[in-house]
Design brief:
With about 750 residues, this protein is mainly α. The protein contains 27 helices and nine strands. A five-stranded mixed sheet has the order 4-3-5-9-6, sandwiched between helices. A two-stranded antiparallel sheet has the order 1-2. Helix 5 runs antiparallel to helix 6. The protein is globular. The chain starts with about 20 loop residues before the first helix and ends with a strand.
Length: about 750
């Protein structure tokens, strides 16, 4: 800490190529958090893993990011990240870890990039603290340990930031074009989410460049045009291709990439309506990846403790089904209630907000004395950039109707940048006795410690009282001692400042390790003692890995082995044949509660905890197991059909695609609601000998009710004894009770 007082100098001489020895352990920490035990995740997010399996089989599937090897429907995102994953799988072989590896490396790369970006202007210590804060932000490793897109997206946007900063330093227009083109590439990773950083890019370029307004407008207009061209390049090619020569664009209602970009993956995220039935009636978003029907499914266990069952029923009866982001608890998927303090609410705060109070104090210090008309120093200009990234994104997450916790990784770079730059700036003000600004450091430490106590308090049953009390007590003591010792200059004060930073990073570091300690969730990644649930919030009480989580989910046609009829439940309520039901007081103990429910009795998936004996976890947030008897039956009776079988949605199809590499038709796309198939089209496919077996469950009827009705009316039901894995009559599919049908038309 004592080196923070010196004026920042750019290291361009003999030190330019020297390795920063302080950076080495930071990178090793990031590598450990992002890479350790990723080899235990066999399927990762099965929806995306199935797509990689399919993309390995042909360039046609590769280019369109086809979910299935038959090229029937695409996944719900553009292809760039999945191109990278497919290349990784081609090089290292098809494994869960080889698909996760690009995202893990991107997470490490983001730490290094942030170090480079912050160090150049704010100094080496600022760069170190920023890199460490990025590495220890809990949601960063949680997402980077999966095959979800967001880690790669953030890395790409940081590359674009580096290009923009270089454009300003060198006054070369080519770097401006490169920066905005890179945002266009990011658009082809996760569409409109990439544009969340645009306010920062525009504001920074306008403020930081010393050219005429005419040139600024001309350069930014040209760069924006290039960005838009790169953004829509793949979409234009796909939408211009005849529909019968490419897969259907998954999760769209009009078979259009542009509709997907600006609807399902765009404006609907703000409004909360991301699910549209075939009849055109909007429904509240349930999940980007059908979590409501598969992620939360559990089977009850007849030996469950009776008192726990009683408490579970009481908890369930008190829940109410809520629209995304709202509700009387923590909103759907524990994303809190919209409002100005949403990021401080339970479920979001422990993912991203550990250092937010310190960041606020840092912003005050960095902008103290700045005049609106300038002139601005380089530090102030770059601080403005990070602020213009932080504020719009924070506002979005404060009001958005639908998002998942792991989207919050978008806030990690500006928070980490301000944590690093602010630590140096506030320390300098403190040591120089800079009036009221000298109080910002102890004030930031005190308020940040207080927030961390608040964040940890719901988890006292799993982490104990000691760490909560320790952070609170040490934070208060160090802040008060620093306040008292303001007029003293000696080494003890330096050590106290360093100790304060260690205290503020201690619990984020622990939280960042929870996906390793407790197990992660590749479909809905989050950090915390309940990280395997992917739901955030208080920890689970489930202790039997066989009865909870994905290992408790049943493949199509298998039985749960008990008399419960609760398989395939939606969050917060009972289920009959997969239909959404309001919470009932008669719900059984195996039932999943709505996210944000009781902290003591909500039974969250926890099969990947350290208590699990499985060396390989088949997660994916979907039904990541196959019914071998069903597979054997379908394989034996296939007479040359293109598709092994057809089913309502991707949940049933994904594990069979991963297992066999054979085409399986998800008739309604990801969630089962895409209007892809018509009765006449299905008849033609059957007559051509493309498909004859259909596994139908209670979910996924939106947009294909007529098709499902026709299948049932024109098929013969296959006796369950021929394909079901047990003799039980309870045919537990991923979305409720399922039946296998066969249709042959002449």
């Amino acid at each position: 800490m004592k080196h923070m007082n010196s004026e920042v100098k750019e290291e361009r001489t003999s030190n330019k190529n020297r390795i920063d020895l302080f950076l080495v352990p930071i990178v090793l920490i990031a590598a450990f958090l992002n890479l350790f035990k990723i080899w235990t995740d066999e399927y990762a997010n099965a929806y995306y893993t199935a797509a990689v399996k399919s993309m390995l089989q042909s360039f046609h599937n590769f280019f369109y990011a086809s979910f299935d090897p038959g090229g029937y429907v695409t996944i719900d995102k553009p292809p760039v990240v999945f191109w990278i994953q497919t290349i990784s799988a081609k090089i290292f072989g098809f494994h869960g870890w080889s698909i996760i590896l690009p995202q893990a490396l991107a997470g490490i790369g983001s730490v290094l990039l942030l170090y480079v970006l912050v160090k150049r202007t704010f100094g080496v210590w600022a760069g170190r603290f920023a890199a460490l804060a990025m590495a220890l932000t809990p949601i960063v490793p949680a997402v980077s340990r999966t095959n979800n897109i967001d880690s790669m997206l953030v890395f790409t946007l940081l590359v674009a930031t580096w290009m923009l900063f270089r454009a300003v330093r060198t006054a070369k227009f080519g770097w401006v074009l490169a920066a905005f083109a890179m945002i266009g590439v990011a658009f082809n990773m996760k569409m409109l989410q990439a544009y969340m950083v645009l306010p920062a890019f525009y504001v920074f370029y306008v403020v930081a460049t010393k050219i005429t307004w005419k040139k600024k407008i001309a350069f930014l207009t040209t760069a924006t045009a290039l960005m838009l061209a790169v953004s829509v390049s793949w979409a234009v090619v796909v939408d211009s291709t005849s529909a019968d020569k490419r897969p259907y664009m998954g999760s769209s209602q009009t078979n259009s990439v542009l509709e997907l970009a600006f609807g399902y993956n765009g404006i609907n995220r703000l409004t909360g309506n991301t699910s549209v039935t075939g009849s055109g009636h909007k429904q509240p978003a349930q999940t980007e990846q059908q979590t409501a029907s598969s992620e939360t499914k559990q089977t009850s266990n007849s030996s469950a403790d009776s008192s726990q069952s009683s408490n579970q029923r009481k908890s369930s009866s008190s829940q109410k089904m809520q629209a995304p982001g709202g509700g009387n608890q923590n909103g759907m998927f524990n994303t809190g209630n919209p409002g100005p303090f949403r990021l401080f609410q339970k479920g979001l705060s422990d993912q991203i907000s550990w250092l937010l109070p310190f960041v606020i104090f840092s912003i005050v210090g960095l902008f103290a004395g700045v005049k609106f008309k300038g002139p601005y120093t380089t530090k102030q200009k770059e601080s403005l950039f990070w602020l213009a990234w932080l504020l719009p994104v924070a506002v979005f997450f404060s009001i958005a109707g639908f998002f998942h916790q792991y989207y919050l990784i978008m806030l990690a770079p500006p928070i980490a940048a301000f944590a690093g730059a602010g630590a140096v700036a506030l320390w300098s003000m403190y040591k120089q006795h800079n009036g009221w600004k000298s109080w910002l450091l102890p004030g930031g430490i005190l308020t940040t410690a207080a927030l961390q106590v608040y964040i940890m308090s719901p988890y006292v049953s799993s982490i104990g009282v000691a760490p909560i009390a320790g952070v609170g007590a040490l934070g208060v003591i160090l802040a008060l001692v620093l306040a008292v010792r303001k007029q003293r200059k000696n080494s003890l004060t330096n050590y106290l400042g360093a100790a304060a930073m260690v205290v503020l990073l201690a619990m984020p570091a622990y939280w960042a390790m929870t996906p390793i300690i407790y197990g992660g969730n590749s479909m809905l990644p989050s950090a915390g003692p309940d990280s395997s649930s992917g739901m955030g919030g208080p920890p689970s009480t489930a202790t039997n890995s066989k009865q909870s989580g994905f290992n408790g989910m049943q493949p199509p046609g298998s039985s749960s082995g008990n008399s419960s009829s609760n398989g395939g439940q939606m969050p917060g309520g009972s289920s009959n044949n997969g239909q959404m039901q309001p919470p009932s007081s008669s719900s059984n103990s195996g039932q999943m509660q709505m996210p944000g429910g009781s902290s003591n009795n909500s039974q969250m998936p926890n099969s990947f905890s350290s208590k699990s004996s499985s060396s390989k976890r088949k997660s994916g947030g979907m039904n990541a197991e196959v019914n071998q008897k069903l597979l054997n039956y379908l394989t034996k009776n296939n007479t040359g059909e293109k598709y092994l079988f057809a089913t309502t949605d991707s949940t049933s199809a994904a594990p069979y695609i991963i297992k066999t590499g054979k085409p399986v038709m998800a008739m309604g796309g990801f969630s089962g609601s895409d209007p892809i198939l018509t009765v006449s089209k299905l008849k033609a496919m059957i007559k051509k000998g493309e498909v004859k077996y259909f596994y139908l469950s209670g979910m996924g009827k939106g947009g294909q009710s007529d098709v499902i009705t026709w299948i049932k009316d024109n098929s013969k039901e296959i006796p369950s004894s021929k394909w079901q894995s047990t003799s039980s009559s309870a045919q537990q599919g991923p979305s409720g009770n399922g039946t296998l049908y066969e249709i042959t038309l002449k």
